[in-house]
């Protein structure tokens, strides 16, 4: 705030509000329970996904000014998310799961998503699995 970074402050406040809302929802279901790190990361990933969808919609509507704004906000959110896995790392996980007997798409997808736990997009994992099976 003192640095005059109004955009950054706005994004941080928005992310904090999302985490606090998730905490309230969990508190209603299980009084006295705090959010785990995985749940907090899931909230941030949801915000990142919303930004990605908004970017696509703004591109279709030829609103370059809003695309730039959303991309800047998305970059700020990524600073607080764990580093995403590369396609090569996902391929290695899929190969290991295939040797353990998971051979159909659904089983591989389910087990791989358990392993990556938010460090990779579901679409990316699906593409890697399709490439390996196809």
What does this structure look like?
- The protein has 134 residues and is mainly alpha-helical.
- The protein has two domains: 6-78, Orthogonal Bundle (Hypothetical Protein Yqey, Chain: A, domain1); 87-133.
- It contains six helices and no strands.
- The radius of gyration is 18 Å and the shape is globular.
- The N and C termini lie far apart (51 Å).
- The model has no long low-confidence stretch (mean pLDDT 88).
Features:
single chain, mainly alpha, Hypothetical Protein Yqey, Chain: A, domain1
Question: SSE layout and pairings?
Answer:
Layout: H1 6-29, H2 37-60, H3 64-78, H4 87-99, H5 105-116, H6 122-133
**Strand and helix order:** HHHHHH
Quick check: average pLDDT?
88
CATH topology of the largest domain: Hypothetical Protein Yqey, Chain: A, domain1
According to CATH, the homologous superfamily of the largest domain is Uncharacterised protein YqeY/AIM41, N-terminal domain
- Helix count? 6
CATH architecture name of the largest domain: Orthogonal Bundle
Query: Which term fits the overall shape?
Result: globular
| N- to C-terminal distance | 51 Å
Kindly provide the name of the CATH class of the largest domain: Mainly Alpha
Point out poorly predicted stretches.
Answer: none
Helical residues, percent: over 70%
- The number of strands is 0
Our estimate of the beta-strand percent is under 5%
- Note the main sheet: none
